[in-house]
Amino acid sequence: RKFNVAVVGATGAVGEELFRVLAEYDFPINNLVPLASSRSAGSTIEFKNKEYTVKELTETCFEENDVEIAFFSAGGSVSEKFAKFAVEAGAVVIDNTSHFRMDPNVPLVVPEVNPEDIVNWRETGIIANPNCSTIQMVLSLKPLDDLYGIKRVDVSTYQAVSGAGKTGMEELVKQMQDFFAFKLDETEIKAFAHQIALNVIPQIDVAQPNGFTKEEMKMVLETQKIMHKELQVAATCVRVPVLRSHSESITVTFEDGVEVDVDAARDALAAFDDVEVIDDLANNAYPMPIVSTDTDITYVGRIRRDVYAPNVLHYFNVADQVRVGAATNAVRIGLKWIEMENDI
Ligand code: A2P
């Protein structure tokens, strides 16, 4: 059967990607309802060679359009205010913002890792999509945890500007143009705390009392919730001048006594759904943003055992932030939800 599907934030970076991914996955859509603010109501989007008019997000729009599945990607405050109207209209909300993620009654799902949690959607009508950095990290942690049991994770991220939406992407491009026009000193700084072109910024989101940033603490708390485990996680989240793929340098400490077999770890990663290994350092082969961009794969490479501790493994992990970190994960949640609901 087919569903009436709404996309809230239809004109945003993730919203636009959602339409592409929904088409590619042949999502069973009856009626498609693109929603945004009054600013872009009346504009059009294209889906499967057909034009759709963007409608204004209102309290009644879900009921009026008989929406059954609503993807939300318009920021936390929009989800906070409007998700309930979609739920009241009988829809399941798949929310891409951080607003509901740590609510104990809302499942937080990466379908390859914890699909079983989706059944709890009935508690609130909402399923949360994790933070982009968390999604690609747990996709590589899960097979390693199944293999050896993870005790601790230390991660440094290299995060693309797409995490800050279209504004972030446009700001990087503009600053690069300003650089080549010899006017980088006059460039506008809006999306980030500092100039991002030719720079790296070791701050994503706001400071927390413990010295970490909010983005870093999202990686801690969301990873524990998805993995159902009190893992120790320490993150350093860094914004880099890359358009739309996040990279992560990850150090995993397994349980005491584990002697990591690197080939076994590599095989476990390669066998996991939607993960691919590119790991041939001698031939300059490893994952990079230019490899992962526009794909639905989380790439892992530079896999190596620690020189000192036999229970410690290091690797590098890259994925498209807009797809794997947002739109594709949301669509995969939707497909899994449909599969499970049909079984009930
Ligand atoms: P609009 O184009 O009408 O502003 P991005 O993450 O790329 O910045 O995109 C944000 C998305 O969220 C856009 O589609 C934007 O629509 C939408 N949006 C932002 N604020 C609201 C709001 N108050 N109501 C509905 N949609 C909103």
UniProtKB/TrEMBL annotation:
It comes from the Bacteria. GO terms for molecular function: aspartate-semialdehyde dehydrogenase activity; NAD binding; NADP binding; protein dimerization activity. Substrate binds at Q159, R239. Keywords: Amino-acid biosynthesis, Diaminopimelate biosynthesis, Lysine biosynthesis, Methionine biosynthesis, NADP, Oxidoreductase, Threonine biosynthesis. Phosphate binds at R101. Coiled coil: none annotated. NADP(+) binds at T11, G12, A13, V14, R39, S40, S162, G163, Q321. PROSITE patterns: ASD. Pathway: Amino-acid biosynthesis; L-threonine biosynthesis; L-threonine from L-aspartate: step 2/5; Amino-acid biosynthesis; L-lysine biosynthesis via DAP pathway; (S)-tetrahydrodipicolinate from L-aspartate: step 2/4; Amino-acid biosynthesis; L-methionine biosynthesis via de novo pathway; L-homoserine from L-aspartate: step 2/3. It catalyses: L-aspartate 4-semialdehyde + phosphate + NADP(+) = 4-phospho-L-aspartate + NADPH + H(+). InterPro entries: Asp-semialdehyde_DH_CS (IPR000319), Asp_semialdehyde_DH (IPR012080), Asp_semialdehyde_DH_beta (IPR005986), NAD(P)-bd_dom_sf (IPR036291), Semialdehyde_DH_NAD-bd (IPR000534), Semialdhyde_DH_dimer_dom (IPR012280). GO terms for biological process: 'de novo' L-methionine biosynthetic process; diaminopimelate biosynthetic process; isoleucine biosynthetic process; lysine biosynthetic process via diaminopimelate; threonine biosynthetic process. Catalyzes the NADPH-dependent formation of L-aspartate-semialdehyde (L-ASA) by the reductive dephosphorylation of L-aspartyl-4-phosphate. This is Aspartate-semialdehyde dehydrogenase. The lineage of its organism: Bacteria, Pseudomonadati, Campylobacterota, Epsilonproteobacteria, Campylobacterales.
